Amino acid sequence: MIPTLPQASDILAALGQAVFAWDIASDSIAWGEQVTSIFPGIPAERLATGAEFAKLIEPAQTLRSAALAQTSAVHGADGTPYRVEYGVRMNASDPVVWVEETGRWFAGPDGRPTRAIGAVRINNERHARDEELAKLARLDPLTGELNRSHLLGALAEAIEEATRFRSTAAFMLVGIDHLARVNDAFGFDVADAVILDVAKRIRARLRGGDVLGRFSGNKFGLILKNCTVDDMNVAAERFLAGIRTDVVPTKSGPVSVTASIGAVSLPRYARNTDEAVNRAHETLDAAKRRRAGSFAAWRPDAARDAQRRVNIRVTDEIVTALNERRIRLAYEPVVSAVSRERAFHECLVRMDQGNGQVLLAPDIVPVAERLGLIRLVDHRVLELVVAELAAAPDVCLSLNISPDTTMDPDWWAGIESLMLAHPGVAERLIIEITETVAIQDIDDVRAFVSRLKHFGSRIAIDDFGAGYTSFRNLRKLGVDIVKIDGAFVQNITHSADDRAFVQTLIDLARRLDIKTVAEWVQDEEAASMLRDWGCDYIQGRLIGLASADRPWGAPPDSALPAAG
């Protein structure tokens, strides 16, 4: 049997398309018979005119007319092509049918559309795909909650809304405690399971209208609308209890989890997103420092604000002093505890403020470390010390650096180039690693020490006993000298506890073949005790405090150029 060709109407129906002719002048639309399959349940009279059909269109009723207006007229029998996508639904409760309309319009003598012919087809799949892509752009892929950028956008809207309507809201940062330990112990997949479970627990305790988003790896942001300070405290405890009450089941077994929260009231204490995020972050850090699993709310603090103003001022002063070469050195003698002969001089940083005032190391170093400027200060001090050593062949000097500087490849490149350029300097240089901050990676510092000792330099640990380094780490580092913190030395003539502590340190160091320096030696009685205990070197008021005067003569002709 010879198959019969399908009629055009059958082909259109199979393709999910319906044709139309639109007389724009009279606004009447004639549809093909396939229209009932495209728009089921919509009465014919709602499709009979452009005006009635436009009432069914979302998101804008003028979408079809605008599509024609945005194309330039092509005069002739072929007309002007156009294409537009829109949604159609009869009632607000009905699902939207997404449609792609393609066709051609024909212009009248004035160049404006007078009629159009075309076809519409259902395009729900494409719209669903576009919606999914839009959803992925908005949401965190692990938790399905808002990602950071959209969370911040919602935060900006919440602050604006609370300001306009004189209401109160809150922004919270929820940080999962010790998530890195879970990563190390079980792997990232288990850590992801913990993050997802915590997100679900928070979501289950939110009110309608509140917003949850993933702020960063282990942190969630919460926007609580119509939330007073009292409400904020209650909500925080509800979230914390919900997280810590039950263990998180994972494929590696149950994991116990706690979280800490920092919060700020909006718009009372934060009138923009930057303030809200910074202050919530600040209080979250404070909560974590106090103890894991706690809550802190941001409050004004005059002392904290004053300290920040000081930090800003000192930061500017340090950077300006570096640029203007106003960083100077002072030299404090270190002598043999037995013979009192000069062993070396410790170089201490000074900052000339340009008005006759000078800032000392205790004023500079802690702030520089806290604000991330210590690396720059250490660079400059290195240049000055090497210049002194190069100009005075008989001098031995020590300089202090922060453990952070030992991790700085630029600093190492600088010292390496200076030592290669000035043979004989390295053997007369002692590097003192300060303990004002903890040594984060002992193996990396050990590698740094080994490279320096290869050049012939010696390594000292400064302020030993008050910081973070143990004798076990001293052995790993391979240090040559331990400088005993002066806080224990200055009272050895009056304090039995300090005497026992210092004597023990000296004895242990001697057994490890490490030289000892006692700092802050005040008088002859203390010096004699230290000598008898076997301390190798002493420094302090008895020997002479730091001075900008060079005991070995005139300064070098010029400072060395910046290394590296």
Summary, kept brief:
The chain has 564 residues and is of the alpha/beta class. It has an 8-stranded mixed barrel, surrounded by 6 helices. Strands 2-1-6-5-4-3 form a 6-stranded antiparallel beta sheet. The chain has a 5-stranded mixed beta sheet with strand order 8-9-7-12-13, with helices on both faces. Mean pLDDT is 85; it is low at 1-8 and 558-564.
Question: What does it look like?
Answer:
The chain is of the alpha/beta class and 564 residues long. It folds into three domains: 8-128, 2-Layer Sandwich (Beta-Lactamase); 140-300, Reverse transcriptase/Diguanylate cyclase domain (Alpha-Beta Plaits), CATH 3.30.70.270; 309-538, Alpha-Beta Barrel (TIM Barrel). Helix content is 41%, strand content 23%. The chain contains 20 helices and 22 strands. The strands form four sheets. It has an eight-stranded mixed beta barrel with strand order 14-15-17-18-19-20-21-22, surrounded by six helices. The chain has a six-stranded antiparallel sheet with strand order 2-1-6-5-4-3. Strand 18, helix 16 and strand 19 (458-464) form a beta-alpha-beta unit. The longest helix has 22 residues, at 302-323. The termini are far apart. Mean pLDDT is 85; it is low at 1-8 and 558-564.
pLDDT below 50 for ≥5 consecutive residues: which ranges?
A: 1-8, 558-564
Largest β-sheet summary: 8 strands, mixed, barrel
- Write out the strand line-up for the largest beta sheet, numbering strands in chain order: 14-15-17-18-19-20-21-22
CATH superfamily of the largest domain: EAL domain
Mean pLDDT: 85
3D shape: elongated
User: Could you tell me the radius of gyration in angstroms?
Assistant: 38 Å
> Number of helical runs?
20
Q: Give the end-to-end Cα distance, rounded to a whole number of Å.
A: 90 Å
Per CATH, what is the topology of the largest domain? TIM Barrel
Q: How many beta-strand elements?
A: 22
Number of domains: 3
Structural class: alpha/beta
Task: Give the amount of beta strand, in percent.
Answer: 15-25%
In percent, how helical is the residue content? 40-55%
CATH architecture of the largest domain: Alpha-Beta Barrel
CATH class of the largest domain: Alpha Beta
